[in-house]
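Dear colleagues,

As part of the handover before I leave the project, I'm documenting each prediction I ran so the next person doesn't have to rerun anything. This entry is a single chain, and its sequence is reproduced below.
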Amino acid sequence: MEERFSVLLLRTVLVGCLLGISATVYFLFGLAGYVHSFWVNTSVVAALAFGALFFFAKFFTIPGHTNWLGRFLWAATLILIVTQIALGLLPPTSRDELTHHLAIPKLYANAGRIIEVPIAPYAYYPMLLDMLYTPWVYWGYDFVPKLIHALFAALTGLLLFAYLGRRLNTVYGLLGLSLY
């Protein structure tokens, strides 16, 4: 059983690295002025889709490896995930989301490249997560960044599940995933 959790831990880390590499490549192409490039934007979408498919594929195999308490925790976590997805489909309203996470990518999308934004000192070192938001903001889907943010939370929860499942057992792993 410990082998299964070690493999899950490694694969989840690799998916996170893939997302980080894809954001870094997008940043480099964005500096070169390729923010409107179909292939660059599609590669970001493909990396995000792969990350989401990976999470759901692993998440839906969990109930087969646990007892009734683990299945209850899994179902409770599933309800939380479905609720988060439904809330993520709403338009953005929070100040931080609108002024930081969406405004700067919108400036990049409008300029067609990663630009200097003197009024925002944090834009001199843009977060890689914002690079993953930029294609969606460019296409006008300003609600998708919430779902991307939730994907990173879900993958972090999967890391906790794999770590705790290896160290303790599946129920504790699910408890860590659901509490996170």
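The chain has one domain: 2-179. The helical segments are 2-31, 38-59, 68-88, 95-111, 128-139, 144-167, 170-179.

All the best with the project,
I.
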